[in-house]
Amino acid sequence: MNRFASFAKYTIMIIIAIVSIIPIVWMITGASRPYEELFKYSNSFNIHLFVPVHPTLQNFKDVIFNERNPFLTYIGNTLFVASIVTVLVLLINSMAAFAFAKLRFRGKAIVFALFMSAMIIPGEVTLVPNYLLMHNFGWLDSYKALIIPSMLSVFGIFLLRQFFAEIPDEILEAAKIDGATMPRTFARIVLPAAVPPMITLGLMTFLGNWDSYLWPLIVINDDKKQMIQVAIAAFSSAEGTDWSKILAASTISTVPILILFLFLQRYYIQGITASGVKG
């Protein structure tokens, strides 16, 4: 019975993995096809559905070396913004989470409840107020409009607070007796113990900013400062949609995320499943 259960479990996992990877494979192979061939074999299930008949790298060349739509510039812009936001989110939200988890101050429960209530507000509801705020500050068409509103993550505070709450108070008291200040205790004891959830939050934040489309489209008008997802959408216009170039651009934009996840997936899984400090 155990062998059958194990076989069934792995069979289901393999099927789910295949179903999940098929769109990625089709995207990569589609990016390697001429436009005329892209949908030619989509109505029949055969090897040419995934294997190009006339493979080409022209789509990638057209995307990378497009002077009117400088894709590498957009990748650099997105990498810069996503990296800065990720660092700031980890720094600011980890301190806030630690305060909610371990420090005592008046009104802590009320403030935390207000923070958590913000999680149920859809992002679309805050678009107009945030836009007006950026306009009043004079931050439109600048990276500040992309970075500063994204520094606070209510989910990040919640995630890290749950982890910090499991750190034994005795460890913090021992550090205090040894003469360590609160910032030193946070930097030398708390943060090293929180590497998995920090990496989890960092990956989520980086991915969210890498895939951000609506907010950059609203606040950035200068093409030289635009983000990668807006650049991909630019291949679709009133004249038509060049799906080959969209697939090529999407493939290029996916590579950094895949590389990042491959190196950090172990910590990501630990951060998702962690519920306390392992001794």
UniProtKB/TrEMBL annotation:
User: Which CDD domains does the entry link to?
Assistant: TM_PBP2
Q: Please give the organism.
A: Paenibacillus apii
The Gene Ontology biological process annotation of the record reads: transmembrane transport
| Main subcellular localisation | membrane
Taking the record's annotation, the residue ranges forming a coiled coil are none
Which keywords does this chain's UniProt record carry?
Cell membrane, Membrane, Transmembrane, Transmembrane helix, Transport
Q: Which family does it belong to?
A: Belongs to the binding-protein-dependent transport system permease family.
What is the protein's name according to its record? Answer: Carbohydrate ABC transporter permease
Where are its TM segments located?
Answer: 7-28, 74-98, 110-133, 145-164, 185-207, 246-264
Query: Has the keyword Transmembrane been applied to this entry?
Result: yes
Q: Where in the cell is it found?
A: Cell membrane
Q: Which residue intervals define the domain ABC transmembrane type-1 in the entry?
A: 75-264
Chloroplast listed as a keyword: no
GO (cellular component) term, any one: plasma membrane
Which taxonomic lineage does the organism of this UniProt entry have?
A: Bacteria, Bacillati, Bacillota, Bacilli, Bacillales
Bilayer topology reads: Multi-pass membrane protein
